[in-house]
Amino acid sequence: MAILNIKSYRSSATSQQVAQQIAEIRDTGGVVVKKNQASFMTQSLVLTGRCFVNMYLDLGYYCFGSIQARGSMLMFIAAFLTFMAIGGFPFFKRIRRLVFFFHQLLFFLHSSKADSFMFFQHRSLEEKD
């Protein structure tokens, strides 16, 4: 099969064009002159099309990889939640206690400020009379 492909390539027009380009490069002393450069958009479209074809032809490889990645992510989340439930709960319980304490402290300070403000306001009104 490979020998048949080689023989058909050697007799094709593409082979003759490549041989002609090689002869031109030899004549210029090895300097390659760029001809017919494809645009960025054309290159992107061709490469994207090739990638889609390869993914379609080798569907099992890509599907297995994505299934394995999803399973790994689910296992990571399950392990993370398990460790947080075992080791992290007392930490959050302590934080909740601290928040409750600071709420009480802020309430006390605020009420003290309000009481002192009322006291000084009352005193200032008494002195004016």
Top keywords for this entry?
single chain, 87% helix, Plant_ABCG, mainly alpha, 4 helices, 129 residues, 0% strand
Write a short abstract of this structure.
By secondary structure, the chain is mainly alpha-helical. Helices cover 87% and strands 0% of the residues. The protein has helices at residues 2-10, 13-27, 40-57, 59-128.
Number of folding domains? 2
Computed over alpha carbons, the radius of gyration is: 40 Å
Percent of residues in helices comes to: over 70%
Number of strands: 0
The low-pLDDT segments are: none
Determine the structural class based on helices, strands and strand pairing. Answer: mainly alpha
Shape: elongated
Question: Helix-strand pattern, N to C?
Answer: HHHH
Terminal residue distance? 117 Å
Count the helices. How many? 4
Main β-sheet: number of strands, strand sense, barrel status?
none
The overall pLDDT average reads: 78
Beta-strand level of the residues, as a percent range?
Answer: under 5%
Protein name: ABC-2 type transporter
Organism: Musa troglodytarum (fe'i banana)
Transmembrane segments: 74-92
Family: Belongs to the ABC transporter superfamily. ABCG family. Eye pigment precursor importer (TC 3.A.1.204) subfamily.
